[in-house]
Amino acid sequence: MRLCVNGCDKVVAIPTGATLLEALRNQLGLTAARFGCGLEQCGACMVLVDDVPRHACQIEVADMAGRNIRTPEALQEDALGRILIDAFVTHQAAQCGYCLSGILITAYAWLQSLDHLPSRAEIATQLDHHLCRCGAHPRILAAVAAAAKARATAVA
Ligand code: FES
Ligand code: FES
């Protein structure tokens, strides 16, 4: 079947019932979205489907025909994505980094439509469904806050 991934048409040959995450990682070599729980509980596998964050571990790839899929790799090609990545680097938000690509996808989708500087509590609420086993939460929250501020400055 054909998939639109990061702005490009891709052809994948996948077994019946395969997930979007399997197609991205195993067929297309896009490994930034990661497999954690496989149960929509950790957020490591998040991608954007028509600009909405979704758990790629639970989406059947057969349902993705005609949808616009963006993976964490695409954030490097986007102004807000680069602001977020820079903030995460500046704040050394990664320990192992396994959780971060999913967190970046959620933060990106949220900040895109945000019209104010978020409080720490708001950021924590937005990221509440993401698990970070390393306990890097304080640095992750600081990085998202810094990205929100940098974005506000950039669009002012
Ligand atoms: S791997 Fe998809 S939510 Fe954990
Ligand atoms: S930095 Fe290791 S799981 Fe979050």
Question: How does this model look, in words?
Answer:
By secondary structure, this protein is α+β, with helices and mostly antiparallel strands. The chain folds into two domains: 2-73, Beta-grasp domain (Ubiquitin-like (UB roll), Roll), CATH 3.10.20; 78-155, DNA polymerase, domain 1. Helices cover 38% and strands 12% of the residues. The chain has five helices and five strands. The protein has a five-stranded mixed β-sheet with strand order 2-1-5-3-4, with helices on one face. α2 crosses α3 (100-113) and α2 (79-90) crosses α5. It starts with a strand and ends with a helix. The mean pLDDT is 96. The structure holds FE2/S2 (inorganic) cluster (2 copies). One FE2/S2 (inorganic) cluster (FES) is lined by residues 94-99, 132-134, 136.
Task: Briefly summarize what is shown.
The protein has 156 residues and is of the alpha+beta class.
Notable features of this structure?
156 residues, Ubiquitin-like (UB roll), DNA polymerase, domain 1, 2 domains, five-stranded mixed β-sheet, 5 helices, 5 strands, binds FE2/S2 (inorganic) cluster
Biggest sheet descriptor: 5 strands, mixed
* Helix-and-strand structural type: alpha+beta
The fold-level CATH name of the largest domain is DNA polymerase, domain 1
Shape: globular
What's the name of the CATH homologous superfamily of the largest domain? [2Fe-2S]-binding domain
Helix/strand order, N-terminal first: EEHEEEHHHH
The CATH architecture classification of the largest domain is Orthogonal Bundle
Number of helices: 5
Number of domains: 2
Overall mean pLDDT score? 96
Which regions are unreliable across 5 or more consecutive residues at pLDDT < 50? none
The Rg value, from CA coordinates, equals 15 Å
